[in-house]
C-alpha cells in the first residue's frame, strides 16, 4: 500500500534573530538570479524563509549545502560541482572549499533539472508509486511530489506534496518550461504524449471517438474549450523556481477543459494557497482524478468515454470525470475534499450522477468559487471519510473534523 506520512518534517525555515542582521550572522536572498537550492547539511530538505520574510538568516558557523541538480555550482565563474558544503561567515559571505565567497557570486550554471523515478510502492488497483524531485548526490533524492500512477490507464491517480506556510512569497515571472515526458511511464506504441495534447491531436482522437469529422470544432474549439495539460500539483504551489519547474511533468498532469482549468479549478488552487498563508500553516495536499468523462456520439447519441489515446486494442490517458483535492492541516488534523466536475458541456439535470459524496461547501468560509457554473466547472466539497467511501485509493488520514474555517 502506498501511504504518505503527514508529519511536517520536510521543510525547514530559518530566521534566528529578529530585527536587523547582526555582524555575526548571514542574511541572503534565496530568490536572487540563478541562486542554488539551500539544503540543510546532510539532509534532503529545502530551507525556506521564515513566514513573512523573503531573506534567510543563519548564525555564523552554520553549515548548509548549496545544490544545483544536474548543473554546476559556480563561484566567481569556476565550477565547484553540483553540490557544495558552505559555512556561514557573516553578512552574505560563505566559506567553501577553503575560500570565502559572497552569496551573489555563488550561482547555478543553469536552472536545476528535476527528474522522475519509479519507487517500490503500490497504490490503487493498478497504481505504481513514483516521485518527482532532484538528485542531490548518489544517496539523496529531494522529493517535491509523490505520484500514484495508473499503469493501465496511463494517468496519475493523484499527486501529493507539502505546501509551505511561506507560499505567499513564491517566485514569480520565471520562464515557463515545456512539459516533459519521462521514460518508463507511457506505452503508447511510439506516440508522444505531447502530440496527443496539442489541439490537432485532441481533435483527431476525440472526434474519432464521437463520430465527428477530423477537423470538427464542436468540442475541441479554438478558444477556451479544449483539453489543457491540467497540473495536479500546480506550478504556483511551490516557493522556488526550481520546485515550480518540477511540476511540468506529464505524470503530474491530466486532460482538463481549459474553461475549467482557468476558472473554478484555478480558484480552488488559489483558495488553498490563501488558506495556508492566512493561517500560517503548512498543508498536506493531494490532487487527483476520478472516473472518465463522456460526451454523446454524434450519430447514435450513446455516451462515449473520452481518451487522448485510442486504438483498436486499448485506450489510455482518459479525460477525468472529476478532479479532486484533499487539503489537510496536520496540526489540527482537519481536512476537506474539493471536487470539480470536468465537463463544461453537461446539462444541469445531468449533474446528479457526478455528486459522489454529500456537499458540505456551504459550511466552508474560505472558498471563493462560483460553484454552480457548469462551464467553469461545477464544484462541491465533501468530508474526507465520505469521499473515501467512493474513491478508495485516496490516502487514509486521521481526520478530526472539517477544514471549514
TrEMBL record:
<dbReference type="InterPro" id="IPR040255">
    <property type="entry name" value="Non-specific_endonuclease"/>
</dbReference>
<dbReference type="GO" id="GO:0004521">
    <property type="term" value="F:RNA endonuclease activity"/>
</dbReference>
<keyword id="KW-0255">Endonuclease</keyword>
<dbReference type="InterPro" id="IPR001604">
    <property type="entry name" value="Endo_G_ENPP1-like_dom"/>
</dbReference>
<dbReference type="GO" id="GO:0005743">
    <property type="term" value="C:mitochondrial inner membrane"/>
</dbReference>
<dbReference type="InterPro" id="IPR044925">
    <property type="entry name" value="His-Me_finger_sf"/>
</dbReference>
<keyword id="KW-0540">Nuclease</keyword>
<dbReference type="GO" id="GO:0003676">
    <property type="term" value="F:nucleic acid binding"/>
</dbReference>
<dbReference type="InterPro" id="IPR044929">
    <property type="entry name" value="DNA/RNA_non-sp_Endonuclease_sf"/>
</dbReference>
<feature type="active site" description="Proton acceptor">
    <location>
        <position position="231"/>
    </location>
</feature>
<feature type="domain" description="DNA/RNA non-specific endonuclease/pyrophosphatase/phosphodiesterase">
    <location>
        <begin position="141"/>
        <end position="387"/>
    </location>
</feature>
<dbReference type="GO" id="GO:0046872">
    <property type="term" value="F:metal ion binding"/>
</dbReference>
<dbReference type="GO" id="GO:0005634">
    <property type="term" value="C:nucleus"/>
</dbReference>
<dbReference type="GO" id="GO:0006309">
    <property type="term" value="P:apoptotic DNA fragmentation"/>
</dbReference>
<comment type="similarity">
    <text>Belongs to the DNA/RNA non-specific endonuclease family.</text>
</comment>
<protein>
    <submittedName>
        <fullName>DNA/RNA non-specific nuclease 1</fullName>
    </submittedName>
</protein>
<feature type="binding site">
    <location>
        <position position="261"/>
    </location>
    <ligand>
        <name>Mg(2+)</name>
    </ligand>
</feature>
<dbReference type="Pfam" id="PF01223">
    <property type="entry name" value="Endonuclease_NS"/>
</dbReference>
<dbReference type="GO" id="GO:0000014">
    <property type="term" value="F:single-stranded DNA endodeoxyribonuclease activity"/>
</dbReference>
<keyword id="KW-0378">Hydrolase</keyword>
<feature type="signal peptide">
    <location>
        <begin position="1"/>
        <end position="19"/>
    </location>
</feature>
<keyword id="KW-0479">Metal-binding</keyword>
<keyword id="KW-0732">Signal</keyword>
Amino acid at each position: 500500500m502506498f501511504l504518505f506520512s503527514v508529519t511536517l518534517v520536510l521543510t525547514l525555515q530559518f530566521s534566528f534573530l529578529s530585527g536587523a542582521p547582526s555582524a555575526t550572522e548571514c542574511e541572503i536572498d534565496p530568490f536572487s538570479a540563478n541562486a542554488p537550492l539551500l539544503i540543510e547539511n546532510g539532509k534532503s530538505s529545502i530551507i525556506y524563509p521564515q513566514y513573512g520574510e523573503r531573506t534567510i538568516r543563519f548564525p555564523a558557523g552554520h553549515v548548509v549545502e548549496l545544490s544545483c541538480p544536474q548543473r554546476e555550482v559556480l563561484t566567481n565563474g569556476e565550477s565547484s560541482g553540483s553540490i557544495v558544503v558552505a559555512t556561514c561567515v557573516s553578512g552574505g559571505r560563505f566559506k567553501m572549499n577553503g575560500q570565502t565567497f559572497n552569496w551573489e557570486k555563488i550561482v547555478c550554471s543553469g536552472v536545476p533539472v528535476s527528474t522522475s523515478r519509479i519507487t517500490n510502492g503500490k497504490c490503487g488497483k493498478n497504481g505504481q508509486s513514483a516521485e518527482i524531485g532532484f538528485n542531490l548526490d548518489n544517496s539523496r533524492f529531494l522529493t517535491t511530489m509523490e505520484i500514484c500512477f495508473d499503469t493501465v490507464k496511463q494517468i496519475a491517480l493523484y499527486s501529493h506534496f507539502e505546501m509551505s506556510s511561506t507560499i505567499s512569497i513564491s517566485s514569480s515571472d520565471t520562464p515557463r518550461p515545456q512539459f516533459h515526458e519521462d521514460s518508463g511511464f507511457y506505452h503508447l506504441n511510439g506516440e508522444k504524449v505531447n502530440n496527443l495534447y496539442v489541439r490537432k491531436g485532441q481533435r483527431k482522437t476525440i472526434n474519432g471517438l464521437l463520430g465527428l469529422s477530423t477537423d470538427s470544432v464542436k468540442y475541441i474549439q479554438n478558444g477556451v474549450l479544449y483539453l489543457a495539460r491540467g497540473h495536479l500539483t500546480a506550478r504556483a504551489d511551490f516557493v522556488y523556481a526550481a520546485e515550480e519547474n518540477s511540476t511540468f511533468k506529464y505524470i503530474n498532469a491530466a486532460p482538463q477543459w481549459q474553461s475549467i482549468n482557468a476558472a473554478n479549478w484555478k480558484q480552488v488552487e488559489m483558495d488553498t494557497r490563501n488558506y495556508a498563508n492566512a493561517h500560517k500553516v503548512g498543508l498536506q495536499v493531494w490532487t487527483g482524478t476520478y472516473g472518465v468523462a463522456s460526451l454523446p456520439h454524434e450519430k447514435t447519441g450513446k455516451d462515449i468515454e473520452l481518451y487522448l489515446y485510442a486504438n483498436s486494442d486499448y485506450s489510455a490517458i482518459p479525460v477525468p470525470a472529476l478532479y479532486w483535492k484533499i487539503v489537510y492541516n496536520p496540526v489540527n488534523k482537519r481536512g476537506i475534499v474539493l471536487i470539480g466536475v470536468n465537463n463544461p458541456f453537461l446539462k444541469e439535470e445531468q449533474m446528479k450522477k457526478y455528486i459522489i459524496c454529500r456537499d458540505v461547501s456551504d459550511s466552508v468560509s474560505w472558498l471563493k468559487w462560483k460553484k454552480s457554473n457548469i462551464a467553469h466547472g461545477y464544484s462541491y466539497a465533501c468530508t474526507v471519510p465520505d469521499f473515501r467511501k467512493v474513491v478508495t485509493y485516496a490516502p487514509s488520514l486521521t481526520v478530526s473534523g472539517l477544514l471549514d474555517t
